[in-house]
């Protein structure tokens, strides 16, 4: 160890020089007029000039006027406040490349305690900022794709539901009526009559299954009557299939556009599916609240809840809810989640301006 120490700088000045010039950060100090008093080798290399050429210059000698002005203003703010601060600064290097630095700046004081200049330690974070910008761009593109996918899916659901109802459903109903006419208009042998009646019953069950499938894919009530009627039907379906006691309360007094109504309906449906999968609940409430400039949809259950936020996040991280979250954000809204021993509550809140009041409030 002593052998190594023999090779270390021996004076305080030597130690300071080693630290200042050994760091990859740009370090410098300026006087009150903005003239460079000290600059480390890394900064001199970045500026593209020897240290001795830079000392005594100010930023107007090194940077374009608009950048020098910003740097000067930042320096003056620090000196005026007499406190250190950390901020981002954007400058252009000698090749014209725009760079971003995270700079910690602080005042220098003379022996009387008066501010005599400024020091700065600046780290080049250009690549980090570019990576963050690229990540943000990719997230925006992903969000946009998710919304487009969701809207395309909804459109395709409506098309399939319409064809099921208008084509297959109508043809089945027509076939059932013809069989019924045949049975009533012709004197069929007993065995043939029983077969025709069995076919009528089979067709009736198929018609009901097609009708149920049509509603599951894209309930016509949502677009023909509105969100409240669609939520009522949804509650009845979950009560019948999953033995959940589902109540719907609403004070909506305005008609919603298709995108908003469709989003809130699918939020409610996806959350009910989550309740069935994870909550072990007996009761669920769906509540619509209309404020002066917002709309809220809350789905609350009395299930076991999620003991930790991480478990709740996992339950909320399926593609369906990711999709819902993107659509809610697209509407300028937010999705809030809370959970505990008494159950789970999820609230969607979106901006809303009533442009089409059509009926008075109701509560069921």
Describe the structure.
Helix content is 53%, strand content 22%. The chain is an alpha+beta fold and 364 residues long. The protein has a six-stranded mixed beta sheet, covered by helices on one side. A five-stranded antiparallel beta sheet has the order 2-1-5-4-3, with helices on both faces. A hairpin with a 4-residue loop joins strand 1 and strand 2 (36-39). Helix 6 crosses helix 12, helix 9 packs parallel to helix 10 (258-279) and helix 10 (258-279) packs antiparallel against helix 12 (319-330). The protein is elongated, with a radius of gyration of 35 Å.
Topology:
Elements: H1 2-5, H2 12-22, E1 26-31, E2 36-39, H3 41-47, H4 51-54, H5 65-81, E3 85-92, E4 98-109, E5 115-124, H6 126-185, H7 190-217, H8 220-224, H9 227-242, E6 245-250, H10 258-279, E7 283-290, E8 294-301, H11 309-315, H12 319-330, E9 334-340, E10 343-351, E11 362-363
Parallel strand pairs: 6-7
Antiparallel strand pairs: 1-2, 1-5, 3-4, 4-5, 6-11, 7-8, 8-10, 9-10
Helix pairs in contact: 6-7, 6-12, 9-10, 10-12
Main traits of this protein?
single chain, 364 residues, alpha+beta, 6-stranded mixed sheet, 5-stranded antiparallel sheet, 12 helices, 11 strands, 22% strand, disordered C terminus
């Amino acid at each position: 160890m002593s052998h190594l120490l023999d090779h270390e700088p021996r004076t305080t000045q030597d130690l300071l020089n080693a630290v200042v010039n050994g760091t990859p950060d740009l370090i410098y100090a300026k006087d009150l007029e903005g003239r460079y008093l000290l600059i480390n080798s890394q900064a001199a290399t970045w500026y593209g000039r020897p240290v001795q050429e830079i000392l005594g210059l100010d930023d107007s000698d090194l940077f374009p006027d608009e950048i020098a002005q910003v740097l000067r203003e930042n320096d003056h703010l620090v000196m005026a406040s007499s406190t250190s601060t950390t901020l981002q600064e954007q400058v252009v290097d000698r090749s014209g490349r725009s760079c971003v630095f995270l700079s910690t700046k602080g005042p220098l004081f003379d022996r009387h305690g008066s501010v005599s200049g400024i020091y700065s330690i600046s780290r080049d974070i250009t690549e980090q900022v570019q990576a963050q910008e690229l990540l943000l761009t990719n997230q925006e593109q992903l969000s946009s794709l998710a919304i487009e996918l969701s809207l395309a899916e909804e459109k395709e659901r409506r098309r399939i539901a319409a064809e099921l109802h208008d084509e297959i459903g109508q043809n089945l109903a027509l076939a059932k009526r013809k069989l019924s006419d045949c049975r009533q208009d012709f004197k069929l042998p007993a065995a043939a009559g029983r077969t025709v009646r069995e076919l009528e019953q089979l067709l009736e069950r198929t018609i009901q299954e097609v009708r149920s499938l049509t509603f599951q894919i894209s309930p016509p009530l949502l677009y023909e009557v509105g969100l409240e009627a669609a939520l009522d039907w949804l509650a009845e379906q979950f009560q019948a299939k999953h033995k959940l006691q589902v109540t719907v309360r609403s004070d909506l007094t305005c008609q919603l556009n298709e995108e908003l109504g469709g989003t809130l309906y699918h939020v409610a449906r996806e959350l009910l599916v989550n309740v069935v999968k994870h909550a072990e609940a007996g009761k669920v409430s769906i509540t619509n609240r209309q404020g002066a400039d917002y709309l809220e949809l809350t789905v609350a259950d009395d299930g076991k809840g999620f003991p930790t936020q991480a478990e709740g996040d996992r339950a909320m991280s399926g593609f369906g809810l990711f999709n819902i979250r993107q659509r809610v954000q697209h509407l300028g809204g937010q999705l809030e989640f809370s959970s505990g021993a008494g159950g789970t509550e999820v609230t969607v809140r979106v901006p809303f301006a009533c442009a089409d009041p059509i009926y008075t409030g109701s509560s069921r």
